[in-house]
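Review box. Two proteins, two foldings.
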Amino acid sequence: SPSCAGLYVPTQYPSLQAAMTAAQDGDTIIVLDGIYTGPANRNISFGSKSVALRSLNGPQNCILDCQQLGRAFNFSGGSASSPVLEGFTIRNGAGGFYGGAIYCYGNPAPVIRNCIFESNSADQGGAIMLSTTSPMIVNCIFRNNTGFVGGGAIIAYAASPTVWNCSFSGNNSPAGRTIRSLNPNTY
């Protein structure tokens, strides 16, 4: 059964990774104001956990700076979980081939809400890469992200995202598209 605990970073847990490792389904991780860097604050996997990861005071006050050394989050796991990511600025993510800030593959259908994605890059999906998933991306800002091959902000392969009330500016890709879907009739 879910414990519904609040796990606080950095007061109880020194990093996002430490809190995610300790979290159980139903938990909420609350991240206090600050700029978070270093290996324990990037490449965080939600796995199959249904966990909410929220900033205390919104994206202007809680920044994950990946320092061009990896992406912020991976959503992929064997079970159908509904993780939540809310209230972060994610910047300087470098996702290699897929997803500069977020890589989302398979069953997890995260809710990504009230986040700012800036200056992230990857070959496919400067900020977010989606494959065989149907996340909700709500009230987010995408600015100055680069998809070197395609999808300046978001790329979707066999995915059905709901993108609602988001703004896009200064995102780049050779294909000239902010959002690129490889599904016919999706956009």
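Next protein.
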Amino acid sequence: GIRAYEIPTSARTARGHPIPSALPQLTAGEVVTTVLPVTDFNDPNEYLVLATEHGWFKKTSMAAFESLSSRGLVIAKLKDGDRLLWCQRCRDGSDILVGTSNGMATRFLADKLRPTARSSRGVRAMKLKEGDRIADVNIIAANETGAEFVLAVTSNGFGKRIRTENFRTQ
């Protein structure tokens, strides 16, 4: 991990800095999936939820990431061909909404996803049909009202706005 104050500042019009210069510990083939601002690692009700393209989900307590070294940590084991694509913060009581590239969706309570250790693979949250993959993952906060929407967009550019309450919790 890197502290925010260690990232070089630039002018608004500057091109920025290459990620490998800010994170020299990255090896060939590794990519940055998500950048998350974190100030408190000690909240027992806050977790990181990781999701892979093949439907494996993992929930790990934020406390497991408090003592990151500059070398980083291995936080999930992946099978060949699978990729870690989502990493989001989640609290107990929230829901996780998952959509696939073939148009399937499911919603489940984050509480039902059991916390796992840093080195585990996680659990399969959704069975995927042949050729299908996870397209997106969203966390629906526990304190949100029924007025929250999800925008579903197809690869051809068609979209529709759907109320999150229309997705039944599994």
